[in-house]
């Protein structure tokens, strides 16, 4: 049963198993373990990014396709929900229509891009997606009539999913629509993650790995590389779009900065690499660590900079405003110390 | 002397005409585009203005891209840090210019150009040194691994940009060009910024110099071979590491040069200015064909010209003109126009 | 006999966590062809790679031409006079044949006389001089790989299975070329599976098994003793 | 007369101006082992590439069991029964030996697009893969990563993969190059076994005369891309074209 | 204690503006409390939160400020996108958010809710003041703006306001935000304006770096009798104005222009403490700081409803003179300044010198909510 659920993809490391269970436990009970607005925001973000990062890993780690357009799909899903909610009005139907159409549109767009990738070299493909994604971001800001431009869109979602909907309290935590919303995000993310886990451990997943290793030979033993790559791209795009839809439902706001920016793309890339490419569990670890760092690094630095007051230059470098500097350092160090990601590291130690 | 093995005589067929034209095609693209511009624009003075300034813009883009043809094209390192070097170059160069106010503030071409040269040298020294450190600390462990290169160099980019904030402050720095480089010359109803003419001179000189170095020395060959099979290059007796460091430093220094030129053009510099140019610069290197100075040169001119023509004819399309150009060229030649190195 | 050109004593080499060479003692006499023989996977290639420096010996010492080279980096070993033809040929496939050869002449421009000699042995190289090396046929690549090592005067050539994939006619010209090299005073350490080639070319021989040299002596002795071959290399009479 | 399993008709390819394979027309019957010989660069590997689809033909057709497959992509030719082993080893270096073979069997059973089942639940694939590895005596190395195998063992795996494909047309490109004298017989015996199955055809590129002598039913000679001779081994080997262009002088009298 | 949350983009591309805004806010609180930092006997505590210029983070941080930190009033942010994402949070928590200095019209327009006040100017105010400064009988104007909401809305407001003055618009040119080469745009504008009679102006609306003014000026628009005009800018950007002496436009703030005690104090204190004159966002931040204190004083408590009642229609003194929160949309109405650039000794930038103060009543700022 459990084997089936995790598709026989064991963590293969004691520490890793512990970490994963810990994360699952914390996320499942986040509203009760860490009451407070900020921590719930963080937990929801972790859930969503786990799915987003895992879907990217399907592309990058399992299929060896480097794309910078993943946020584009994420954004498509988010804008799908936003536009549906704006035009159809508040309601579950809008959420469903938005999510489905976002996912379908993403898959179609991915199909187009996937067919394109046949012709060009992998590294050029990466650069093309980079250019296309940046152009799409600009386009979204230009089409402000439709998309709200730079400023993005605010919209309402069903009342049962907002803080205004109050149900009383449990263990001293007030049960509101926000909490329901969180569990919607949590369970949807969990299901999507398990789905992805199954896909990469299916015969299809094995073919993807073979293609990543040596596409020439994969073709020569009878696999149509094009079809496999394209399907992987479409699947990955559709899942990313659904993650985007969840994000939109959670945030009740979409804008280019929250869904389409190159920065997010880099964050995703870093999460995949920190966690460990080519393993879905890497996505869990990577996303958790990174989102936590993003949210609490500044606070930590504030403390550190206070503690080092009086020393030359150091407090200046530790100033919370310089947190990006340390993020950059994190980028570099993670590649140094976790060349195979945290998961790879943990597995090799056991 | 042993007897030779029987030589075999492979059969050769005649090349077809389109095949033969295809070879020269990249060289014809720029003239063709200019003619196309003339036909579709109509007004001669507008066409002249757009063409000359487009070519000059192409030169500036080429200067910024030249370092990347070495680092990305030849060495196969996706270096987003290049953008940071452009910014650092601009900051160092512009700081030097501000310090040389007595040279820039007077209307003497000689002094002005001397000041610019001094700024360029200062910038190139600093970015070259920075490149050396970057190679040692950041790039060395990730040769051959594109993905890690992207991450690590983006990390380096962020760190350098933040250090610019620490050292120069977060504000944009506005500046004006040296006296004689301000304003424009008018010619046949077309106004051409004087500064662009300087950029043309710099760009052409750089192009010729790079071509000579790469044609006359083995450096280009060593790097290309080294990327494919470093062990073998070392087994032939070359200190590959030294060559790689040298080329990386050169690429970084060229980014510094590009930074000064671009900063002087924009007349405002920010820590993110280089990063903003990266996509364009990558496009130029890609459509040119990896490792090809000639290709990058032609690519840059195409980008400069096309941008101007499209922005004049149909501003709405300006946004996608570069991407469309890249896509079209890659559909036509999947390896770029004149590839020296094969992309993977 | 003068001192040997190359001498390995007690060389151990690890690849990742595997202990591959387990104490190799090997002597390559000056001015002769030494065959390094053995079954698949016994460590012949690893030995050559350790000599050129692609793998670092974990212990033991390597002496070349009287000097200790154990801790020299690869380029320094090459410049000291060791030429290398790797098992996978190490062709720079994106470069043309010409560019491969230009690089092979590390200390200056290509010597036209030497080039003529190479063309005589391997005519296809002249035919495809301007073609991309990656497009050559398997045998042509092998020729290029050997030609690259011959582009400059070296004291010692390490050659890993040069005849694989070569047509018989080319094998004999290649054998001739190697003899020319020897005549010019060079020494050769040759790994070869084709026993008749080994027999025809080798002066001395060393046989490896399991990361060690298990037999060393005159090639003629080995060639004349079928039982010894059978024992060392599993060679049966019929396979000759 | 038995049916032609594979036929090429006027098969030609040009690289730029260079005609590497020049109008080769030839048919191959079931139960027959054809050795293809010729000097280096004669076009043997390129001929294979044209048949298996790695290179698109400039002219001519390839027919597999009567069906024109000239325009088919590599993968579908493979699935229709054209199996190919490569001259320069070409495997999945970071996967294990077992996984390499298993992937092939999975391909043959058309399970690639199976998204929702667990790969590990398909035991039958593993069993079949082990059986094949046993045939080439690689089974002790089943769990090793291919990248760390010695050259000779990689060549054996190359053969194992071809056998796992279970094709109608086997194409071997110098299968024993670099294989030691005690190992080569394993592969050669295997080829002999395949030949005994009678319903397949085998194409073998080989430079070693003893191998050709012991295995070939027929020899074709390629020279400068063109078909220079075709016939039974003894006649072809004795012909001038083979003696001059191919054999050169005997090694013994160098 | 009274908690004020300053939620703004401390890090990211607008870091420089953010610092100004925060300094201004603190100076404003200090000024309005007479240095005690106390109102009605309660201490003012300012907590800072960094949105990193990301709307989602801004949203979470504002919720945290209201929900976990129990802030009474929030101020910020710098970027309009972040501000728009934050608006519903104020409504959810039923607490006041004073928007400063984000400029998008829709903040006090279609996306407005009754908990939102804005001390900063909005884009219409910018555009309309420029129209008032540039317009006039017989004037023909071409516009150049970035092709996105800010640019298009700005031009629309400008056009609307200009109609009243008798001037007309001959050509509107929009270019992508990241444009670096303006030759084509300039050529199009020149071609459109070439045959036009009378006074010809090119009005440039541009946000952020890379202002095309200098580059277009270098193409010698005077050949066609075209004058360049543009709005004011932060001090650093005025360097570019040095090439354009005599250029006119309308600005939001320049420290030498407003003549009032608040500004005198600000300029003096700022010079003393930071060694430089105050800039755009310092003035804005200070206006917000004073507004907070005045509102609490007037309401007598930090109860949201009381604050809203107090603030609607409230007038208070700022470095820019008297501002007034309009009842309908809570937008602060304020003066703008018609300027002309001059070269002055000792200043390495073009100095905007006051031509005329455009008072609250000189501009008809539409209510759009
Ligand atoms: N990169 C590597 N990683 C792990 N093991 C390796 C690696 N390279 C070689 N080996 C192992 O080292 C041993 C010796 O290999 P080597 O290539 O030296 O053999 P060889 O004698 O040259 O064989 P062959 O005749 O097949 O070329 C083999 O068992 C091989 O599996
Ligand atoms: N892609 C290509 N582009 C250009 N020329 C090519 C290409 N592929 C092969 N050739 C040329 O075609 C000729 C035939 O090569 P092929 O590999 O078929 O020879 P072969 O008969 O297999 O030789 P060998 O016995 O050495 O393997 C060679 O001269 C080679 O240079
Ligand atoms: Mg070997
Ligand atoms: Mg071949």
TrEMBL record, chain A:
<feature type="transmembrane region" description="Helical">
    <location>
        <begin position="324"/>
        <end position="344"/>
    </location>
</feature>
<dbReference type="InterPro" id="IPR043428">
    <property type="entry name" value="LivM-like"/>
</dbReference>
<feature type="transmembrane region" description="Helical">
    <location>
        <begin position="221"/>
        <end position="248"/>
    </location>
</feature>
<feature type="transmembrane region" description="Helical">
    <location>
        <begin position="180"/>
        <end position="200"/>
    </location>
</feature>
<keyword id="KW-1133">Transmembrane helix</keyword>
<protein>
    <submittedName>
        <fullName>Branched-chain amino acid ABC transporter permease</fullName>
    </submittedName>
</protein>
<keyword id="KW-1003">Cell membrane</keyword>
<feature type="transmembrane region" description="Helical">
    <location>
        <begin position="46"/>
        <end position="74"/>
    </location>
</feature>
<feature type="transmembrane region" description="Helical">
    <location>
        <begin position="268"/>
        <end position="293"/>
    </location>
</feature>
<feature type="transmembrane region" description="Helical">
    <location>
        <begin position="94"/>
        <end position="116"/>
    </location>
</feature>
<dbReference type="InterPro" id="IPR001851">
    <property type="entry name" value="ABC_transp_permease"/>
</dbReference>
<keyword id="KW-0812">Transmembrane</keyword>
TrEMBL record, chain B:
<dbReference type="InterPro" id="IPR052157">
    <property type="entry name" value="BCAA_transport_permease"/>
</dbReference>
<keyword id="KW-0472">Membrane</keyword>
<feature type="transmembrane region" description="Helical">
    <location>
        <begin position="109"/>
        <end position="130"/>
    </location>
</feature>
<keyword id="KW-1003">Cell membrane</keyword>
<dbReference type="InterPro" id="IPR001851">
    <property type="entry name" value="ABC_transp_permease"/>
</dbReference>
<dbReference type="Pfam" id="PF02653">
    <property type="entry name" value="BPD_transp_2"/>
</dbReference>
<protein>
    <submittedName>
        <fullName>Branched-chain amino acid ABC transporter permease</fullName>
    </submittedName>
</protein>
<feature type="transmembrane region" description="Helical">
    <location>
        <begin position="21"/>
        <end position="41"/>
    </location>
</feature>
<feature type="transmembrane region" description="Helical">
    <location>
        <begin position="195"/>
        <end position="214"/>
    </location>
</feature>
<feature type="transmembrane region" description="Helical">
    <location>
        <begin position="47"/>
        <end position="72"/>
    </location>
</feature>
<feature type="transmembrane region" description="Helical">
    <location>
        <begin position="242"/>
        <end position="265"/>
    </location>
</feature>
<feature type="transmembrane region" description="Helical">
    <location>
        <begin position="317"/>
        <end position="334"/>
    </location>
</feature>
From TrEMBL, chain C:
<keyword id="KW-0067">ATP-binding</keyword>
<feature type="domain" description="ABC transporter">
    <location>
        <begin position="6"/>
        <end position="235"/>
    </location>
</feature>
<dbReference type="InterPro" id="IPR003439">
    <property type="entry name" value="ABC_transporter-like_ATP-bd"/>
</dbReference>
<comment type="similarity">
    <text>Belongs to the ABC transporter superfamily.</text>
</comment>
<dbReference type="InterPro" id="IPR017871">
    <property type="entry name" value="ABC_transporter-like_CS"/>
</dbReference>
<keyword id="KW-0547">Nucleotide-binding</keyword>
<keyword id="KW-0813">Transport</keyword>
<dbReference type="Pfam" id="PF00005">
    <property type="entry name" value="ABC_tran"/>
</dbReference>
<dbReference type="GO" id="GO:0005524">
    <property type="term" value="F:ATP binding"/>
</dbReference>
<dbReference type="InterPro" id="IPR052156">
    <property type="entry name" value="BCAA_Transport_ATP-bd_LivF"/>
</dbReference>
<dbReference type="InterPro" id="IPR027417">
    <property type="entry name" value="P-loop_NTPase"/>
</dbReference>
<protein>
    <submittedName>
        <fullName>ATP-binding cassette domain-containing protein</fullName>
    </submittedName>
</protein>
From TrEMBL, chain D:
<keyword id="KW-0067">ATP-binding</keyword>
<dbReference type="InterPro" id="IPR003439">
    <property type="entry name" value="ABC_transporter-like_ATP-bd"/>
</dbReference>
<dbReference type="InterPro" id="IPR003593">
    <property type="entry name" value="AAA+_ATPase"/>
</dbReference>
<feature type="domain" description="ABC transporter">
    <location>
        <begin position="6"/>
        <end position="249"/>
    </location>
</feature>
<dbReference type="InterPro" id="IPR051120">
    <property type="entry name" value="ABC_AA/LPS_Transport"/>
</dbReference>
<dbReference type="GO" id="GO:0005524">
    <property type="term" value="F:ATP binding"/>
</dbReference>
<comment type="similarity">
    <text>Belongs to the ABC transporter superfamily.</text>
</comment>
<dbReference type="Pfam" id="PF00005">
    <property type="entry name" value="ABC_tran"/>
</dbReference>
<keyword id="KW-0813">Transport</keyword>
<dbReference type="InterPro" id="IPR027417">
    <property type="entry name" value="P-loop_NTPase"/>
</dbReference>
<dbReference type="InterPro" id="IPR017871">
    <property type="entry name" value="ABC_transporter-like_CS"/>
</dbReference>
<protein>
    <submittedName>
        <fullName>ATP-binding cassette domain-containing protein</fullName>
    </submittedName>
</protein>
